[in-house]
Amino acid sequence: MKRPTGEWLTSYLNNHLRVMLIHPHLQLFGGSERLTRLLIYELSSLGHEVIVVSSGRDPSEFPDLPNVKFELIKNVFSKIPSDLIIPMKTERIINIIYSIDEVINRHRPDVCLIMIQEPIYVLATKLSDPRMGSALYIHYPFEEELTSNNVYVFLNLYRFPHIYERYYELADLHMTNSNYTASALYRSFGIESNVVYPAVDWEFFTHEPDLSEARDNVILTVGRFVPQKRQDLLLDWFKRQIKPEVPDAKLTIIGVPDMRFMEYYDRLKRLSSEVEGVTFIDRALTPAEMIKFYREAKLYIHLRIGEHFGMAPVEAMSQGAIPILPEKSGLAELVTNSRDGFTASNDYEFVNYTIKVLRMPKEDLINMRKFAYRRAWYFNPDRFAKEVIHYLRIISK
């Protein structure tokens, strides 16, 4: 077989695609929305056209560009008599089918990418154009935060977690954010996937941190205020175990409230005010603001067991904070234990590793920071966007 020439490769890479990219709720701004924003504008910078479909968006975070167009899911039922009673789920699904059909007919995309594990959008795409290749980017094959009390919040955001399992196989290609997620998808549904690790914003790589500078004994954690993140447990450890061993230790907790778990948020806020040395920040911060906190931290800790992946640990590593991550998670794939961070198999190890880093000799600390910083560079937007496009080309028309 003849090897591809440099000219052939350049032609292949310059073959720009028109991508219909779907994310149900870009009016919010969590991890999947941030990753979607990063991908949209990185694809745009590479010359691809992106038609974005969502139920809403924040224009300050998702501005229009000549080759980036936004289409909102339309409410078909505004044209139907109000006395016709239709279940919420049915209404939402019909709105999706109608809107995607309209977008496909207007823009004629080459391929479809759904940036969250919602295969109902694959079904809608296939109903409109059976020949169009569709890919799913799966953060985790199950909705772990679903409860009987918050299911209508999901439906309101055009999410349908109860019907994931029935339609996963409709996608022509599956991408997952870690080997941990890929294993869960295969174990539960027998579906193989291509692991494409996420990326963090370019801003985290713009200015190299001073990896040899002294830092106070600051512990940092970042994440939505939901019980699965276990910030309440970290507060208890800090008060009862870490502070007595390292009296000058400080804890910074950064996150945003989640409308589904407001009682947990209120409790965290109260507990934080009762513990000395704790800084509690409950709003979204800009990358520049986050960089400041990451550079102040000696270590970053993430307590959620089974976390499929997370961008905050990568951001922290890019600024020289040493990560302590759960062994049973996709996050464990970020580090080699004791080289560029630590992976804890139980709560006892989380506490011990935290105290170990806070007491670590300067030379060992700097060496570990350097490894963490180099590892973080892999998770850059250019690598992420090019890997995604590579797979989309395989299924494009």
Number of alpha- plus pi-helical segments: 15
Strand content: 5-15%
Largest sheet: 7 strands, parallel
* Coarse structural class: alpha/beta
Q: What is the element string, with H for helices and E for strands?
A: HEHEEHEHEHHEHEHEHEHEHEHEEHHH
Mean pLDDT over the residues: 89
Measure the end-to-end span.
25 Å
Identify the notable features of this structure and list them briefly.
six-stranded parallel β-sheet, 15 helices, alpha/beta, seven-stranded parallel β-sheet, single chain, Rossmann fold
Question: What's the topology here?
Answer:
Layout: H1 6-13, E1 18-22, H2 31-45, E2 49-54, E3 68-72, H3 88-107, E4 111-114, H4 120-128, E5 133-138, H5 151-156, H6 164-167, E6 173-176, H7 179-189, E7 194-195, H8 203-206, E8 218-222, H9 231-245, E9 250-254, H10 262-273, E10 278-281, H11 287-296, E11 299-301, H12 311-318, E12 322-326, E13 342-344, H13 347-358, H14 362-376, H15 381-395
Parallel strand pairs: 1-2, 1-4, 2-3, 4-5, 5-6, 6-7, 8-9, 8-11, 9-10, 11-12, 12-13
Any overview of this molecule?
The chain is an alpha/beta fold. The chain is globular and about 65 Å long. β11 (299-301), α12 and β12 form a beta-alpha-beta unit. Helices cover 41% and strands 14% of the residues. The chain has two domains: 11-199 and 381-395, Glycogen Phosphorylase B (Rossmann fold, 3-Layer(aba) Sandwich), CATH 3.40.50.2000; 203-379, Rossmann fold (3-Layer(aba) Sandwich), CATH 3.40.50. Mean pLDDT is 89; it is low at 7-12. α3 (88-107) crosses α4 and α12 (311-318) crosses α14. A seven-stranded parallel beta sheet has the order 3-2-1-4-5-6-7, with helices on both faces. The longest helix is centred in the first third of the chain and has 20 residues, at 88-107. It has 15 helices and 13 strands.
